[in-house]
Design a protein that fits this description.
- The chain folds into four domains: 7-139, no CATH class; 188-229 and 238-359, no CATH class; 495-586, no CATH class; 605-916, Methylamine Dehydrogenase, Chain H (7 Propeller), CATH 2.130.10.10.
- It is globular.
- A hairpin with a 2-residue loop joins strand 22 and strand 23.
- By secondary structure, the chain is α+β, with helices and mostly antiparallel strands.
- Strands 9-8-6-5-2-4-3-10 form an eight-stranded mixed beta sheet. It has an eight-stranded mixed beta sheet with strand order 34-35-36-37-13-40-39-38, with no helix packed on it.
- The two termini are 38 Å apart.
- Helix content is 34%, strand content 24%.
- The longest helix has 36 residues, at 237-272.
- Residues 5-180 form the MoxR-vWA-beta-propeller ternary system domain.
- Residues 584-608 are annotated as: Disordered.
- InterPro entries: bpX3, TPR-like_helical_dom_sf.
- This is MoxR-vWA-beta-propeller ternary system domain-containing protein.
Length: 918
């Protein structure tokens, strides 16, 4: 009998009647708040808990089985589910292919499962009858304890409250290293004492590497043989020297043979007895090009545990030459053993492998932090990696506040130092640190942060208000400073002062480039200020500035009129009058020749419809734009390249921007900035440079979401590729050709050794194409496509041409990967049986694109737009797209499943959202 794998596919049409609803949330409180809205008795409502994944059992939400003829409340935020065979719940907008009968569903689930849920992200989950819950299970009291606590005796208490704990030893990292240097090389045991097992294959493989060591002897012996006389009765000095060189050559060959046998035994030990093999493992140099074993032909025995003394003090060793394939095999074994040690909770042994065997100090430090060895991690960060901020963060995590504070002060992180002083109950030192932070921010014209410190940390709202009202025009972001000042006025109830300031703003000397943001800020103030008289006064001030701007009839006129409409939403004739005012301006604009549709390539045209558009702030040079289905993220530089900006904007809602920045001189930098966004987690943005410049992490809030923006301390230096998904961050290091995976806590949970393809050419400015999907990542190196995962074997696929870019289908849909070359590309279905690949046309030059949720692939290349369908593991050209004139620098997801956004850069920084007729 033939069998077929079942697939859950997204459908644009409703396929099932609602029999259940999935309610997101991770706590009983959230579930109860939604369950009480249902118009049914508590006994009739049953549900099961849906986990995040098979490896992460934290709740993603609950699947509620709806009672007969139940109606969903209007406030319900859940996703409706249908039922197959009365036991298998699937989304109503999904299809199970091939089609399955109720009898087949029952046979597949078997008698053990009472109900099953097929969630697009969590997968297929089965539940026994005992796992079906009701509302009473959420309200049940815990079992009563038999112990009697009415006669409990109080224990011994400290005579004062504990403020901090400081270790008496070591007093400093230098003394720690000095004391740890004893005992280096004290063990003389060697690998030859173990069971022998000589392998001819590895001996032959090492012979080529050994000839490099013997090459001086060969050259000298050959040269002297040509100088020596052909015949002679007595040995000459040349013949004697030639004999010595030959004996040296033979000794060199014997040494390499013995070392080859040692390496053979080491490889067998690492496979069969890894704990024993680690004791004799060969450390590799910084670039993995040489290895240091013991002197002579024997490997030195070491204690496989992280030791700062060995790391800083060094020891006796000698480089062992070996072929490249053996080096790669050892590196692969070491990385696999490091993962094994982390899974077993032996973080010191894993740190030993990373630091001493692989010379990967960044990952070693991250592993020590995960194992709560904060002091040693801090020493690595400060002394070896020259990353004092990460060292201070480690000391802070470990409760070593007295040692962390001086580092923060040297780095001028005075606010963090003040927080630690406050935690140590030293108010005078805390206030002094906060004051220094305010002075530092004011010197950098960062008045917003200075005012926030004054209000939040020092409780001085009056000084914060005075700082903002006097300096908002000097701030880099005048609009945010202005609105923040008005918020403070409303909080402290200074309505008279607000009324007076509103009148003064009518004659304020606002630069023309900042007037639009100034008017938008006034409109936001007029909508939220708590006093009616002040609101009317601010509205009048905004109208005064709008009228002045409209007399210039410049490019800001449409945006100014849009703000005017926001100020008077009750005026139904205002939009008509605004349109009449703009009509003469629109007629004077010159229009270029229309692009004719390409002939002979497709007889079908698909119309693109413009859904909406908006502009990014003009004050920054934006160089990177990306997005999720909910948020837009942009990176930019100031004109002098001394400040990096990040902007967050919600696709929906008020579209209020949230910004942050870092002060760095990037004029001479040649490296790109990488961005990794975890769309499923919706909580983290990572932007990192592949050089030692670190962007300090900060939390930015927009609507109900909080993002962490910056460079995490556990991310290695020299990263040239980055991808994130489902709580995993994948980083590629070009120097070692290794791929590392980190979890949410920064713990390295995957480490894969890759191979550079023969056609690979490394360029410093090049970004490695990567795409992460759930717990799998795809990496393009030259013409090789690698697929790796935390629980998956490394797979490699040879493609026709060098890979320029990778994109993937949205989460919750069938996995598809689009590979773009310099000319043409291909589409892959990773989950299909075998490697199924469909080629894109070769006439696509420098293609870029995006997948929509219904399986369509939008591609831009050669100045034109095309749309392809990728359903049923087939690539079908649907036609050329008309109605888009932009040449995109970035194509990102839009707010809806069938929408995408196009950013063209240059000129007005406009982002346009489109949808294409299906």
């Amino acid at each position: 009998m033939r069998t077929f794998p079942l697939q859950l596919n997204y459908s644009t049409q409703r396929q099932h009647e609602a029999a259940g609803v999935f309610l997101p949330g991770s706590s009983p409180e959230q579930w109860l708040r939604q369950l009480v809205q249902f118009d049914a008795g508590s006994a009739e409502i049953t549900f099961v808990i849906v986990p995040v994944s098979s490896s992460d059992l934290h709740p993603r939400g609950i699947l509620v089985r709806l009672p007969a003829e139940a109606i969903l409340p209007e406030e319900c935020r859940g996703q409706e589910y249908g039922v197959l065979g009365n036991r298998l719940f699937v989304p109503v907008a999904s299809q199970v292919l091939p089609q399955t009968s109720a009898h087949e569903v029952a046979a597949l689930l078997g008698p053990d499962y009472a109900v099953a849920v097929w969630h697009p992200q969590s997968g297929l989950i089965g539940y026994e009858a005992s796992e079906i819950l009701s509302m009473r299970d959420l309200l049940r009291l815990p079992p009563q304890r038999s112990a009697d606590w009415t006669h409990a005796q109080p224990g011994t208490a400290f005579n004062r409250r504990l403020i901090s704990i400081a270790a008496p030893w070591p007093d400093s990292p230098e003394k720690m290293l000095e004391n740890a240097a004893d005992g280096i090389g004290s063990h003389s045991k060697n690998l030859s004492d173990l069971k022998p097992g000589v392998g001819k294959s590895i001996k032959d493989a090492a012979a080529a590497g050994g000839m490099l060591l013997a090459s001086p002897f060969l050259y000298a012996a050959d040269f002297l043989a040509n100088l020596a006389p052909a015949k002679g009765s007595r040995p000459t000095w040349l013949s004697q020297l030639q004999e010595k060189l030959q004996r040296g050559l033979q000794a060199s060959i014997r040494l390499n043979d013995a070392r080859a046998r040692e390496i053979e035994r080491l490889l067998k030990l690492l496979q069969n007895s890894p704990d024993e093999g680690l004791k004799y493992a060969i450390p590799f140099g910084g670039q993995g090009t040489s290895s240091a074993g013991g002197s002579g032909s024997r490997l030195t025995k070491r204690i496989p545990s992280f030791d700062l003394g060995r790391l800083f003090g060094g020891g006796a060793g000698e480089n062992w030459d070996m072929p490249g394939d053996l080096q790669v095999q050892l590196l692969k074994n070491y990385r696999e053993l490091a993962e094994r040690e982390i899974r077993l909770g032996r973080h010191r042994r894993a740190a030993y492998i990373y630091a001493e065997l692989l010379n990967d100090l960044n990952t070693a430090a991250a592993t020590l932090v995960a194992g709560l060895h904060f002091r040693e991690a801090a020493v690595l960060y400060q002394k070896k990696l020259q990353r004092p901020l990460d060292a201070a963060n480690c000391l802070r995590q470990g409760g070593l506040l007295h040692e962390a504070i001086p580092i923060y002060e040297r780095l001028e992180h005075f606010r963090t130092a003040g927080d630690l002083y406050a935690q140590l109950e030293d108010p005078a030192a805390a206030e002094a640190a906060y004051r220094r932070h305010v002075e530092s921010c004011v010197s950098k014209h960062d008045f917003l942060t200075a005012a926030d410190t004054l209000q939040q940390s020092l409780g001085d709202s009056e000084s914060a208000l005075a700082l903002l009202t006097e300096n908002w025009l000097r701030a880099s972001d005048k609009k945010i400073c202005l609105t923040r000042a008005w918020e403070l006025l409303g909080q402290v109830g200074r309505h008279d002062q607000a009324q007076k300031w509103s009148q003064e703003l009518k004659i304020e000397a606002v630069p023309q480039a900042s007037q639009l943001g100034f008017v938008e800020g006034l409109a936001a103030i007029a909508a939220t200020y708590p006093d009616d008289l002040v609101r009317h006064s601010v509205e009048d001030t905004a109208r005064t500035w709008i009228s002045r701007s409209l007399t210039r009839r410049d490019s800001q006129a449409p945006l100014m009129l849009r703000v005017l409409e926001q100020l008077a939403p009750e005026d139904r004739l205002l939009p008509r009058d605004a349109s009449r005012f703009l009509k003469p301006l629109q007629q004077t604009k010159t229009t270029g020749p229309r692009r004719r549709a390409p002939q002979g390539k497709s007889s079908v045209s698909k119309q693109a419809r413009k859904v909406s558009a908006f502009e990014l702030p003009v004050a920054h040079g934006w160089f990177s734009v990306t997005a999720t289905r909910r948020h837009l993220i942009a990176l930019g530089l100031t004109a002098d390249s001394e400040r990096v900006y990040v902007l967050l904007r919600s696709w929906e809602g008020s579209r209020q921007d949230t910004k942050s920045w870092w002060d760095f001189n990037l004029k001479d930098s040649i490296h790109p900035i990488l961005i990794g966004i975890d769309e499923s987690d919706m909580s983290t943005i990572v932007c990192v440079r592949p050089n030692p410049i670190l962007l300090t992490q900060r939390e930015l809030s927009i609507e109900s979401h909080t993002f962490t923006v910056g460079t995490p301390g556990w991310l290695p230096n020299g990263v040239s590729g980055l991808a994130t998904c489902s709580g995993m961050t994948w980083a590629f290091e070009s120097s070692s050709c290794s791929l590392k995976g980190f979890n949410r806590q920064g713990l390295p949970v995957a480490d894969r050794q890759l191979l550079f393809p023969p056609d690979w050419i490394h360029e410093e400015t090049r970004q490695i194409p990567m795409h992460a999907r759930e717990d799998v990542v795809f990496v393009g190196l030259g013409s090789m496509l690698y697929q790796a995962g935390a629980r998956h074997q490394l797979r490699a696929l040879q493609l026709e041409h060098e890979i320029d870019a990778l994109i993937g289908s949205p989460l919750g849909t069938l996995a598809r990967i689009a590979v773009f070359y310099n000319q043409g590309g291909a589409v892959l279905w990773p989950q299909a049986n075998g490697e199924q690949i469909e080629a894109l046309p070769r006439d696509l030059e420098h293609p870029s694109g995006i997948f929509l949720k219904d399986g369509r692939l939008i591609v831009h290349a050669s100045g034109e737009w095309r749309v392809y369908q990728t359903r049923q593991h087939k690539l079908v050209h649907m036609g050329n797209i008309v109605g888009i004139d932009q040449r995109p620098l970035a194509i990102t997801p839009g707010p809806a499943a069938d929408q995408f956004a196009v950013w063209s850069g240059g000129g007005p920084e406009e982002i346009v959202i489109y949808t294409v007729d299906n």
